[in-house]
User: Fold these one by one.
Assistant:
Number 1:
Amino acid sequence: MYVPNQLEVDDAATTVANIMANETLFRFGIYVGLIGYGIFLILPLVLSKLLSPVSKIPAVLMVTFAVVSVPISYVNMLNEFAVLTLIGKANYLTAFTAEELRAQISLHLRYYDNGNLMASIFWGLWLLPFGYLVFRSGVLPKVIGLMLMFGCFGYLINFTGRFLFYDQYHGSTLASFITIPGSLGEIGICLWLLIVGVKEKQTS
């Protein structure tokens, strides 16, 4: 989240100039992204081990939806690698004018945004069974489970709005707030597991 906020602005030419002036930061963003998606491949498997005793089918769905998003995300990262190629110093790039290179870079950045939008379908879908398992677990806060389930619909509404109603949706109040419950739920469950842990479920 940090790197795009530092480099990308509404003006395409300025965004390209920022990337070219801060190539190391742009590379660092790609590197962290690759590590993050690798961790996201492991995370649902660990959560499944914790939560599958609650209900096996939602646990399988949780893992499936999360894992499907990973190859989409990795393939999508090729668009950022393409940007690195285009801002490089290779001799064959002299065949393009500066304006053509900027257009190509802007195009790959848009492709990358579109790829993230497609992956966000599964970033949302996995939260529904995940939230359900958290809610039903009896060892984790129910409110976090509810936020995770609401987050699923937030992601799907965001995808629908951006894909079908972009002009009306972009910059709207709904677009600004619709993904907040999911973000709070995801951050909340991470902090809870790291700080509080899982309380032992009481049995009679």
Number 2:
Amino acid sequence: MAETLASLEKTLSKQRFLIGKELTAVDLRLVMTLLRWDVSYHKGFGLKANKGGVLLGDAYPNLRGYVRDIYARVEPEIEWCSFRQYYRWAVGVAPGEALPPVEPIMASAKKPHGREKLSRGR
């Protein structure tokens, strides 16, 4: 997974979206996965050998901006609690152990993205 995040980080350093000149379903799917990564996957699946979250931390500045860019467009449709529904029973979370707090992740998602400067295509 770390290699995939690094590859996405590199790609998104040069372009605003993954494919073409406009936002596509591919972008939406990736952003939903990256939101779930910070909220649940990272801890819920015991993925501790990587650089951490996307929205919290400094390891993936291009991915963070990308998520914020698209989140600004879909924010009213996001149900944060649905991202956490099944992860309390995942391998990486001991019984009774809390998942990361959602509020700092939500606050980060709402910050300015700064991706307007990137060309809108390849």
Number 3:
Amino acid sequence: MEFMDVVRKRRSIRKYKPEGIAEDKLTNILEAARLAPSGSNRQSWKFVVVRDKEKKTRLAEACSRQTWIGEAGAVVVICYPPVKGIDDMRLRRDSTIAAEHIVLAATNEGLGTCWVGAFDHEAVKTLLTIPKEVGVNALVAMRHPAEQPRQRTFKKLEDIICYDAYRQ
């Protein structure tokens, strides 16, 4: 798929078909995340791939009871371990870029995804044995889509771009 087609096709999908995710597709998606850029090439991220049905159900509970998460074929939990001398915001930013690579790569592989930012950090850490000092940025649920969300509308490019200085 052409890159701009991937960008245009990417949607938040919360209904999934029962078919699983092929290993090669999941590997390609995780490889895209591994290749994401990061400040000073720190690569300061760790991904927990959750496929166990019971754990996905418990993750859904930790995500404000968004039960559809339990139906995902996989949920990738994007973490950022501490790096001495690097503040939390920079580590979170790097892991956000990697997460977006996951979302776009999954779209390219024909999968639907949904970025999940509303969750109980401590519950997720406890469930997945993530150490206290490690940050959890987001979760990305994915599987073959069973829905076609309504058409989105976007602002015009000229309404959001300024050149050389900010303008209202």
